[in-house]
Amino acid sequence: MKSRARPDTSVFGEAWELLFAPPVAHRGLWSPDGAPENSLAAFQAACAAGYGIELDVHLTADGEAVVFHDYSLTRMTGAEGKIKDRSSAELQTLRLKGTDETIPTLAEVLVEVGHRALVQIELKTPFGEVGPLEKRVSEILLDHNGPTCVIGFNPYSHAWFADHHPQILRGLDSYGWNDDNARHLAPEQRKAFANLEQVEIARPDFLALDAKMLPSPRADVFRGQGMPIVAWTLRSQAEWDQVRDHCDNLIFEGFPA
Prior knowledge:
This protein is an alpha/beta fold. It is built from 11 helices and 9 strands.
């Protein structure tokens, strides 16, 4: 493994400080019987509780960045089809989990949050399609003066930001080898994720690792070189207690972190 120079963290401003605390609410502070995930209400609740925010973004058919996790609309809205095939105006007519909450744009969320929380923006960029989503997200971030960073699994997406906007804080996501969410990947891709082989391509400022990967000797080396590690997604205090000595912060849901 190559030795890594420590980054000049001063370029990241407040975002770097907030990377370490407070804990980060996964898709906002949502609950099955309350505010739905990735909704303005969930982000407002996270801000009110003093947490950071993690959210997901996709590109719509008309080139807007909207906040939504799944590629399909069905689970959260009951509608058929994929989010990439709808315009932002069409998506505004849908409701999240039967509530009055709609699918917000990234710009709307950042205006709502302002300086109240670090917003970790997971880019849902499919492999082989780097560029359009990154460009739109960067335009929005450069027009926003609150603390933000981008995260995601696609190392080429991070490389795009490293080349075009290195002042935007970047965190590379990685799955554990046996994580259920990684089972759709090819075996060699899963192995690359688990072994953090994509770090050299991505050139990230921090790592966002599946808690199942921790502790990890390889991750410990990166951390020792000055690359913080954020663990995801912790769903109980017991899970957090198991990994807290091997990372610098957590993304959580379902318990008061």
